[in-house]
Amino acid sequence: MNIAKGASTNTLIMKFGGTSVGSVEVMLQVASIVQDARKKWKYVAVVTSAMAGVTNSLLKLVNTAIDGNREQVKNAIQELRERHLAVLDAISLPDTRKQQTIQEIETILLELQETCKAISILSEASPRSCDVVASTGERLAVRVLSAVLESTQIKTCFIDSSRIIVTDDTFQNALPDFVATKARADEIIQPLFAENYTPVITGFIGGTPDGVITTLGRGGSDYSAAILSSVLNANEVWIWTDVDGVMSADPRLVKDAVTIPELTFREVAELAYYGAKVLHPKTIRPIIESNIGLRVCNTFNPQHPGTRLLETRDIRKGTIKAVTAIPNLDLMSIEGRGMLGVPGVAARTFSAVAETGTSVPMITQSSSEQTITFAVPQESSATVMAALEKTFAREIRHRDIDGILKIDSVAIVTTVGAGMAQTAGISGMVFSALGNAKVNVMAIAQGSSEVSISFVVAEKDLKSALVAIHALILDD
Ligand code: ADP
Ligand code: ASP
Ligand code: MG
Fold first, then answer.
1. Ligand 1 pocket test: which of 223, 239, 250 has the largest number of ligand atoms within 8 Å of its C-beta?
2. pLDDT given for residue 1 in this prediction
3. What percentage of the chain exceeds 70 in pLDDT?
4. 203: Cβ below 6 Å to ligand 2?
5. Does domain 11-242 have CATH number 3.40.1160.10?
6. Which residue of 79, 100, 112, 474 is most buried, as measured by CB atoms within 10 A?
7. Per-domain residue ranges for the chain?
């Protein structure tokens, strides 16, 4: 199907997160949301995550298998079986349909058991086998959720997206090939739309061109929904989660956080990048590029309008809208008076870091070029330190570089709002609020983007920093 960009295809993609499919009760709520959407939209597809907590259990299972603890592997698989079969038990479907789904579940669990056995024998798990195990959660969820939808008379079927989302073989963080994916979606999903099906598609999972299962990274079901929306020329994608949309702060950390009714794509991209778990950071790009409408809403409170994403021009400038954080980081600095004369320090620093496979969420450099400071995830900081000491061994020996310094346990806090960084007085307000809360700011990256200011604080000060800045949002 060839459709002009922006034309209405009357297509809606709805993605449901783990808590939204955590039990039969919520799945029935999902069914009623789908029924409502079917009244207004010609074509609807559902993308689902694994049931809440299942992906974590599966990744734990990999370690249990590596340790060779067979009894524990068996118990974990039995728990998965019981949890999914309990949903089927609670719905009314013809017996043959139920048996068919139970059979599907047993086949997947048998495969899981075999994979765990192979991992146990080798006492190690490759990223490829980790993906086979991790994908089990979504593969089970689509079967169970589509049975629930069917029990409420929705015409549905399930699809394993390893057949549709074509990726490279970067296991655990695979990159999609949009052209190949579009061809598969046209071939597999469009005919189902034409027959009025509401397919239930696995989030999180892709497949290499020859069908080996990959995953898109933790929290990747949002990204799956964005990829599918793009290749299906959807008009809108709605992300259904467990809070009333994108909020002014993580409601788990700041209890008086409020819903932000409207955000620009740039604002939400910054929020997602700087730690707001509510949307996977890769979700935004395909949506902007394909001109798709995005909404974030609450499965447990579907009447609430949630958050709408808007084009930049519609937005009131100059206010802080949200504050977010990335915890569990270390701060590294390369310092030395001799650095001024050493060519390419920044380039060498970040290529050494990149070779360790670590991504750096924030960088600052002092104007005199005597210090480069950046944050790295705690679990990678020893590897990064070793790589830098090797790269700059000569300069350290000659004392051009004093050494690589590390401050443990910091967090990046980011304030987000269009035009905020250009509005006089806002950073002053932010930093005096932090001062009043006795929070010491260790590094600042201001003006790196039009819509955010980021700074580093000690992890122990994170909560106070979030609360102090959030008070400014509420006062506005
Ligand atoms: P799902 O399983 O539906 O994908 P996630 O747990 O991945 O849900 O994301 C939703 C969670 O994101 C919320 O429960 C909330 O704790 C967290 N969160 C962090 N920052 C924000 C924010 N700014 N707005 C809303 N939720 C946030
Ligand atoms: N189930 C996967 C995870 O927990 C993907 C997702 O929920 O988005 O990471
Ligand atoms: Mg999520």
1. 250
2. 41
3. 95
4. yes
5. yes
6. 112
7. 11-242, 322-470
